[in-house]
């Protein structure tokens, strides 16, 4: 029973396996499956964890080794821009800072203790994503209710869908992680993210996917962000979706545009290379498709030629067979006719002598202008003279015997009205007659 269950499970999750393999570029299907199983088949968390491993960040499921990982900075360098809160200046600033410091320490300490204790009572719901699309749509609605509709166009879909679209369209993907409880979030949303120049810049150059840590907690854990607001730039690099830049903290509109421009210019060569490579692959695919179509057309033409040749050969064979069958039938007919002539010849009565007073001398004129002479008796039936003519080789297959004057056809063969043909005497023949054999074969 274990084998069928495993097979059924693999069939149900094949689509996720193929999608994860396409996004990460992993060749081993077993490794893809192990990674997805570690993330409880959450493809978004698995993809992001894999991206961070490529950048040198330890996996959330693999503790860092005793020795730090050796990261190839030429291939996995990630640009980071972190804006810290300004330090207090002047006597008034330091006085305000020192007065508020105990209250801040007390507030954040109590908040951390409360959150720590709450974990024992109720697990953090952010780790469980049951409806990724619904959570993203809910965040967008909440964001617009609080900050209005002046913002970059939010991608209304899951993180993996945004990655797929960015990869397919060869565009940058800007991911915004919204920290609702952070003190700089409101100012960033109202003063930076909602400005016209930022909205125009982002909408024209990249996809923008945003969510809070509630609906993408695993992503937040994997990126190890230091502070909020947090932005990550992702693009297709070396055939893999890679994080190429991070922006953290309260960034002003002009700085945000400049930093995004810097990241795009630094990685533009990779994107151009991917576009050229994809165009080359598309051209190769089109060329291969054209070659395949030409081959199929040639193959169909050859098959059609072979089919016509076979049909012609079959028709020729059938015609030859018909000719052969016809020849065999004619040969059988000729032999049967010869045998019948011989039989009729053997059955003929003997020719009477010339001085027999009851004899009749008849001269037959055949269709080929030959003459045949024979004597018969008056009391013999007309059938006898018919059989005599039939036994001759020169006589046609079908014929009738005709008198010259008066012209009449002699009834030599039995009919329904006259089953017994008349005798020569009854037919009115004299002792010497000339009869004509008329060919009826064509008729």
UniProtKB/TrEMBL annotation:
Subcellular localization, as worded in the UniProt entry: Cytoplasm; Lipid droplet
Domain UBX stretches: 355-437
Biological processes, Gene Ontology terms: ERAD pathway
Gene3D superfamilies assigned: DNA helicase RuvA subunit, C-terminal domain, Glutaredoxin, Phosphatidylinositol 3-kinase Catalytic Subunit, Chain A, domain 1
GO MF annotation terms: ubiquitin binding
Keywords annotated in UniProt: Coiled coil, Cytoplasm, Lipid droplet
Gene Ontology CC: endoplasmic reticulum; lipid droplet
Chief subcellular location: cytoplasm
Basic and acidic residues composition bias: residue spans: 301-320, 333-346
CDD domains reported in the protein's UniProt record: UBA_FAF2, UBX_UBXN3B
UniProt name for this protein: Fas associated factor family member 2
Organism: Gadus morhua (Atlantic cod)
Gene from which the chain derives: FAF2
